[in-house]
Amino acid sequence: MVLLLALLQGGEHKFLRGSGRTDLHGRGCSAAIGAKLAMPDRDVVCTTGDGAFQIFMKELATAAQHKAPVTYVILNNFSLGWIKFAQRNRGNRFISTDYKVQPDFVQIARANQCYGERVEKPQDIRDALGRALKATRKGVPAVLDFIVDGWNFAPGFKRFYERLAG
Ligand SMILES: Cc1ncc(C[n+]2csc(CCOP(=O)(O)OP(=O)(O)O)c2C)c(N)n1
Ligand SMILES: [Mg+2]
Fold it and tell me: Can you give the pLDDT at residue 159?
């Protein structure tokens, strides 16, 4: 997630907010509601980890109730990946970093009157994003649960991690 913020760049009609370091995880999910309320005519897409989203997900009702139709893209590796990576570097002792039981985020979305969809294949990403944006343009917040491989790191991740974590 932090790496995504480092790699993506804003364009003329888009902008990206992030601390550039590790942050209070889940914060971006709430901030996205504020961004949408401030700029209702713009599409607001928030990418988040599954751990961060579990802290935040109670605010889906806030987004629905206050007509803040944000799209949430969960990068779901069924773990606290950043912490797990640190544990790997310290002798492969994994403690409390894997979710063997995790809420079904699609059902959580629907239970909060939001659109929800799970995406398991890269070729489905584009259409799923299209359906999510369509829902948000009708005033309905959307949640896309992207299933990702927790050990398939993006290029440059290790360098980035070492710069932040030392
Ligand atoms: C409120 C809070 N608690 C703990 C942390 C420490 N922390 C940094 S990254 C992380 C794991 C994040 O997991 P997830 O959101 O699933 O993202 P992933 O690293 O798996 O991509 C934690 C617990 C934090 N940044 N904020
Ligand atoms: Mg995760």
Answer: 86
